[in-house]
Amino acid sequence: MAFFDLHTHILCGVDDGARTDQEMQEMLRIAYEDGTRAICLTPHYSPYLFGDTSAASERAFERLRAYAAETFPDLELYLGHELGYHESCVQALNDGRCRTLGGSRYLLVDFPAPVGFFELRSAVERLLRMGYRPVLAHAERYRSLAHRLGWIRDFIDQGGLIQINASSAIGDLGGFTRRRWKNLIRHRLVHMISSDGHNTDTRAPKMSVCLPVLEKYCTPEEIGMLMWGNAKTVIENGRI
Questions:
Q1: How is the beta sheet containing 44-45 ordered, strand by strand?
Q2: In the predicted model, is pLDDT for residue 34 greater than 90?
Q3: Cα end-to-end span (Å), the chain
Q4: Is 109 exposed, middle or buried (0-12, 13-18, 19+ CB in 10 A)?
Q5: Is 51's pLDDT higher than 90?
Q6: pLDDT (average), residues 213-239
Q7: How many domains is the chain built from?
Q8: Residue 111, φ and ψ in degrees, nearest 5
């Protein structure tokens, strides 16, 4: 099975992901050897934490694309951002400084783990009104959504998507995220699984780690959509 990793921090020198070109290239090798054949590079867009990463991420992307063309010619690479939502992000989106996923109308959006439900709901509804299709990053982390399955269904009905991290299936962030991961999968409220890879060891860009757990709850066809098909549709700006 080939994987499409829609959420990664492989680009170097732009956020809390890879620090050097060497680490960036090693992360790409790890992903490729794990079975990934398409990656969207999504550095944080959070000016208060990392500054404006638009130009620096494009430069790093071009270096990585040149390396991949020689080393892994069958690997597809795309560019986007993970938006750390804040009130002033609208101008960055309008200006194109904060990128959508591969230039589509789908936007990967992130919140602090303790975010309150009403704050999160207001933010994604604002993005929906602007014409974006928000992809809620690592949704298993948000405690405010633990008992909001009904709202998650409504969010999906309005055009939102849910992304969860592969490594949460094996408890890399503790029991809460592992239980939430399984619960979202059981209720068929997930659209794609990604690595959210940040480095070569503790948060490596590996997708396959979740397969033993995923196979307990999903059919092979469902797994194919979670690990490849839906992400491909997002990049192609299709409908899910």
A1: 44-45, 82-84, 106-110, 133-136, 161-165, 192-194
A2: yes
A3: 21
A4: buried
A5: no
A6: 98
A7: 1
A8: -130, 155
Q: Is the alpha carbon torsion for 156, 138, 199, 227 positive or negative?
A: negative
Determine phi and psi for 192, rounding to 5 degrees.
Answer: -150, 150
Residues 6+ apart with CB under 8 A from 51: none
Looking at per-residue pLDDT, the higher value among 91 and 6 belongs to: 6
The whole-angstrom separation of Cα 78 and Cα 65 is 9
Q: What is the pLDDT of residues 163-179, one digit of tens each?
A: 999 999 999 888 999 99
Six-digit token string for 152:
């998650």
pLDDT digits (tens, 9 = 90+) for 15-30: 999 999 999 999 999 9
Residue 100: inside a domain, yes or no?
A: yes
Instruction: Give residue 53's pLDDT.
Output: 87
The answer to whether position 240 is within a domain reads no
How many whole angstroms separate alpha carbon 209 and alpha carbon 172?
11
pLDDT for 138 equals: 98
pTM of the predicted structure, to 2 decimals: 0.96
Q: Give SS3 for 81.
A: coil
User: What CATH number corresponds to the domain at position 47?
Assistant: 3.20.20.140
Host domain of residue 200 = 3-235
Q: Which two structure tokens, joined as six digits, stand for 22?
A: 């060497």
Query: How many of the other CB atoms lie within 10 Å of CB of 190?
Result: 24
CA atoms within 13 A on the CB side of 116: 3
Residue appearing with tokens 């592969």: 166
